[in-house]
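Re: weekly structure request thread

Next one in the queue (436 aa):
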Amino acid sequence: MSDPTWESKSRLGMSLLATLLIGVYVFPLLTLTSFYANGHFPYFLLIIYALTSGIGVLLGHRFQGLGTRMWLRLVGALLLGVVVSLIVAWINGFTGPELITALLWGALSAFVGLAPEPSLRSTLMWRWQVFGVVGSIIGGIFSRWFEPLFPLQTYGGTLYAAGFISFVACLLNVYSSQLDRAVLNDGKRKIVLREFNRANHQRLIWMLLIIAGIGAFPSLAAWLAPLRDRLLAWIRGLIGPSSDPQLPMTPDSGIDPSKLPGRVTEQSEPSVFWDMLGWFVLGASAALILWLIFRLGRKTINRLMDRLRGMMEPRERRAEPRTEYIDISETLETPVRPRKPWFRKKETPPSQEAERVRYYYRKWIDQARQQGVEIEAAQTPLEAAEKILHHKSSSDKQDTQRFSDMLTRTYNVVRYGKKAPNPSEMSEIDRNWKSR
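Done, posted below.
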């Protein structure tokens, strides 16, 4: 038996780690405060988050009802965030906007820390990880090209580290979730290895495409700069030059000689509108080209992997069908459209017991789908049985439960165990099927 104290400490450690990692994911957002504060202010905000959220996790673990009741959580977050932020602000001498930002951020950090049982594997955590990756990419790349974001160049190394941690955590989150989906829920924890390997191949392809796209963006932007200039010149030609019949006036002489015809003047600075339009055109062109590269690259890599898989498999195994639930997918998902006969011919069950079990399972799934139950081809038999039982009425749920248990158990034995079904269970399944 496991020790309850050890389980409680491990839960506390996982919650504390999940909460502290959120601070790493949101660091690209904290760097925006450098526009009105000193250069080290985002790091102070990160320290405030670590202190307040960590104390909030400890308090929520000690007092269980503190995070479940919203009004207690709000009051506790406000008090804890203000106290910790005031201490940090007093030590570092924050004033004005820095003090207000520190107080608001401290209250928000304490509210996150007081959340009930934060988990490393959740949809919210996955969104924070994606936010960290995207924010680090935008802050790291556009700080070199977009003039208003030049102050973010100071945090280039930290942004890269935050993006790397977010990317690795996102990959681990997706990896663990797909591993759980690949494990059959029958107590034996048998892994569908081929399905899991296929998911790993897709994840590796997307990772390589993302890394290649990030690395190619600066070169792509430099290559698209002449195209941007030509397109902007064409847009200016469509709009047309501004014509003013009156000569510009000056306070001294009344006429600005630099605006008279035939006078050479220095080139004026481009306006903010044209600068923003140029960056918009550049970003749209780069996004379009990267999308085309990703789309064509994914198709090419999939074809190469299929060709390589066919070359590595033995000759006698090349004719084997796919490894997903063939009894559902090939019969129901992508059926070969036969010619419609004049008279409807009833399909008879096969004589062999193993094939008859496959027939019963396929017909059982087909009937459930006709009744409106949504069953995917990649779902396990036990998952399909749970969905079917969920849509059944309470009157016949007991009989359906008994039949589904026998059918799924026998199907798993025949399909994956490669064994003959139990004669007593087989006769009972036949009798139950005939009475349906």
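Residues 4-121+162-179 form one domain. Residues 184-189, 242-269, 328-335 have pLDDT under 50 and may be disordered.
Next request, please.
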